[in-house]
Amino acid sequence: MASEQDDNRRASGTMPLTHSPIWAPTMKKTTSTTKPAAKKAHAAAKKAARPKKPQPLDAIIGADGLARPPWASVDPLLKDYYDTEWGMPVRDERGLFERLSLEAFQSGLSWATILRKRDAFREAFANFDPDVVASFDEKDIERLMNDERIVRNRAKILATIANAAATIRLRDEGGLAALIWSFQPHTTPAPRTIAEIPTTSAESLALSKALRKRGFVFVGPTTMHALMEATGIVDTHLVDSHRRGTSGVWPRE
Fold first, then answer.
1. What is the rounded average pLDDT of the residues 134-139?
2. Where is the segment annotated Disordered (predicted)?
């Protein structure tokens, strides 16, 4: 009787169970099953999906089949300048004074701008004859400042006149060409990309100091390195360029 009543009470829910049901499942704490290798693969995939920085450009093959740096691959004027002048040795006083002057005028501007104005510069500055330019007076300065064909920067015009006078004084030490070429390094860079081309060097820094000591202005180490490149003192043609090693100063390799 008691058993039947107990059963009825259990069925109605008024009598608690005295033990847990044997069929109740044991709950386990869930943990991540991601393996380290999978995590690394996921991280690598996220990194690969990020925008990539532009890669440096190598030499560009033109329609003529010749390899050139990007700056000399599009503009016909720059292409011709690169193919025929840039990097060829210049060893005379007038030629180096002209390039020294044009490099100074180029500061802050593109070389294409200077190249397009080069004939006008030559006419305005007496073909860069140091003896004539050193004698320029206020009337000449005013004339140059009013000449729309050139870069009308008073500081650079005055620098050119001052550098002409310094070039004349330097003749007592052997001359401008001898001084500049005395800073030719023992080795030259061999860049494969534009990013590998240096913009300064120990030699360009030393040349800059030597010229400043002698009264030259607008002759910073970066400007002097550009001068050394343009006049064959160093060969920074890309190794794949058709001009590499053609100056007669440096071998191709």
1. 99
2. 1-56
pLDDT in tens, 164-207: 999 999 999 999 999 999 999 999 999 999 999 999 999 999 99
Distance CA 228, CA 106 (A): 15
Q: Tens digits of per-residue pLDDT, 106-133?
A: 999 999 999 999 999 999 999 999 999 9
Q: CATH for 66-230, among 2.160.10.10, 3.30.70.260, 1.20.1440.60, 1.10.340.30?
A: 1.10.340.30
| Active site residues per annotation | 81, 103, 111
237 labeled binding residue? yes
Q: What is the pTM of this model?
A: 0.77
**Residue ranges per domain, the chain?**
66-230
Count the Cβ atoms, other than its own, within 10 Å of residue 128.
Answer: 23
